[in-house]
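sorry to bug you again but im stuck and you know this stuff better than me. what follows is a protein written twice so to speak, once as letters and once as structure tokens for the fold. id like you to explain what the token line says about the fold, in plain words if possible. anything you notice is useful, everything is just below.
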Amino acid sequence: MKKILFPTDFSDVSKNAFIYALKLADAVDAEIITLHVYALDSPAFLDVSIYLQEIYEYEELSEFENYKDEIPILRNIAQANDLGHIPIRNVLIQGNLVTEMLKISDDENIDFIVLGTKGATHLRQIFLGTTLTKIMDESKVTVLGVPENCQFAPINKILFTTKYHFNDIEALQKTKNLAKILNSHIDCLNIKPPHKVHNDDYVTDFKNIFKDSGVDFNSVLSDDVEGSILNFIQQNNINMLAIHIIHKGFFEKLFQVSLSKKLAVNINIPILSVK
């Protein structure tokens, strides 16, 4: 049985993403490990050192009581979506969220991480929040980020962005394997600057490798990368955007520099980061 790690802060954004975690678990025959990580705040003044242990114990008890109240709500979400049969384990731990996610991912041999996240409220913020970009860059496994305005829909069409580099082939193969399980179609999209000579030899290689695989290959001439992606998503009823994470820091830099401007505001489908 595969394993899905689902970090949660029990917010509405997180509960919305839980439906995607449940549906994915049902499709790939996986159990879900929910993870709630909390931090203990140190007092800002120094004259309470004798009370520190009591303060920490009180904060830990408060977190535990809140945790006990919230866990049944996740189980109710599963029951309401006819997915009560999905095995669910729950973990409560004190520490740093990203650090603990990566540690549990290694210790438990996690296959997927599903994470709900808020979009940027202004353009200087990192797209989809710091936690998601960090975990997509740092994690060794496939990560599914679910924006707050994303309402669950069956994953019938997946968009895989590519420059037709050879190092995209393995990532596309992983995406195709998931698409087969989900009974989804894949569109590959390559966006080229219009005032440049392009060598499309690699496109032929991709088509030969993935022939008879239900993968379509599309190229668009445009200087507006994010706008072209959004247009393709809207015109072709895409349900998921898949991006190959090439190296550490790739996702954060990609969205800080370029795609954050439009996608942070307009994206309303889940994003799959594929290593």
In short: The helical segments are 12-28, 52-80, 97-107, 129-138, 169-182, 201-209, 225-235, 250-266. Strands lie at 2-7, 30-38, 88-94, 112-117, 142-147, 157-161, 185-192, 215-221, 240-244, 271-274.
